Amino acid sequence: MKGATTISVAGDSLAAGEEANSPASALVIAWSQEEPHRVGELALFVDPGRPHVIGRGDDNEGDSSAVRAYFIRQRPGANTAPVPLGGRSISRRQLVVTPRSFGLEIERVGRVPMVVNGVQVDRHSVHPGDTVLLKGQLLLHCVRRARVMPELRFLPDDDAPFGEPDRLGILGESPLVWHLRDQLAFAAKADTHVLLTGASGTGKELAARAIHALSRRAKRPLVSRNAATFPSGLIDAELFGNVKSYPNPGMPERPGLVGQADGGTLFLDEIAELPLDMQAHLLRVLDEGGEYQRLGEATARRADVRLVGATNRDPSSMKHDLLARLTVRIALPTLDERREDVPLLVRHLLLRAAKKSPEIGERFVRKMPDGRPDVQVDASLVEVLLRADLETNVRELDAILWRALAASGRDAVSLPEDMLPRAEAPEPSAEAIRASLGKAEGNVARAAKELRLSRYALYRLMRRHGL
Hints:
By secondary structure, the protein is an alpha+beta fold. It has 4 domains: 6-146, Tumour Suppressor Smad4 (Sandwich); 175-331, P-loop containing nucleotide triphosphate hydrolases (Rossmann fold, 3-Layer(aba) Sandwich); 338-419, Orthogonal Bundle (Helicase, Ruva Protein, domain 3), CATH 1.10.8.60; 430-464. It has helices at residues 175-190, 204-214, 235-240, 256-260, 276-280, 283-286, 320-325, 342-356, 358-361, 379-387, 393-407, 430-439, 444-451, 455-464, and strands at residues 6-9, 12-15, 23-32, 42-45, 52-54, 67-68, 74-75, 78-79, 95-100, 103-108, 114-116, 119-121, 123-126, 131-134, 138-146, 194-197, 222-226, 265-269, 291-292, 301-302, 306-311, 328-331, 365-367, 373-375.
């Protein structure tokens, strides 16, 4: 994924490496009626105060005062060549976008009506997290992006198509997901014990599988177990195995998880749920030499095992000397931190549902000109999900999409009735937000409840007001 020497950014040319990490406002395509394959592409706006035109084709119609904004595909170290927008209904001059110090001022000058955050307007200032809908044609999502995404240091080249899962099964084009891929590749090469942290539904098991697949242990076993499911009193037997009829008569001989994973990787999900005294039992096998003992056996055994643990709890709740042995720690981002990946996940999860249940999915799946399948989705569904408070991340997103499939009676997957946008109260002022946060002692969830906002909406407003 080596970069080209020249990067095109909203009509300008930027030498590779020049201010590569300088953040700029951007609009990401979140939904497109006529060009769904372009979801995830973005237009970067790097010139404060300079107007840019978004519209069909590449003709500026003689207007030299504005720069034509093009959409690109951004990957580590390289931005693809810009491609003009299609869409027969979009005007050649549809939007005029003027970057400001933090955000974008957008004016509709074309024929398609513009809706910002659910409200139809002709002119509006947008900030990261806001959505801009060109009715029936295009949904854009405002983010902040580096002009050029940093190159990867540890991940081998992967030619996965843009917007598709990579060979490890990881999906996402946001900078955070590309950084995560690189972290997982580093952990794989380091061949030391790893702790994965993150909220429920962020993909910790998928990350563990990626570490194993990229490591020298890939041809050896990956043994996975949820540590919270160990039977009380039999944790040692589960982990280290036992001889026949020990500790209870009639018990079969077992190698234990450590024995099964010898030469490979042992993944213990919810590792922090192990009782502290049982966490201590893992210490010797995690040290160099990998010494452990089966129950009822007099002699010690050795195993070459790399442990990957995962937890959604604060790691400080774990036994300190076990935590010290988990030398590489990777925090998995939530969907709240990588909202621009939500539309790609929506498509992927719906295609997976259609494959699992063809009689349900066939109503919504269509063939693209290149032969690949795509899903007909209402823009309103994507727009709401971009702002939804998804506490269990991909798991909750998947559940919502199954509800949407059940509720959709047309050719497109639409929003379930209970998620239809209600008339929104005026946005609270910076003073009201500050007062609620103070009353809640900084607890964003409690402050959001008092303000009758989702956590994500409150975070968006806090960023907007610099709180």
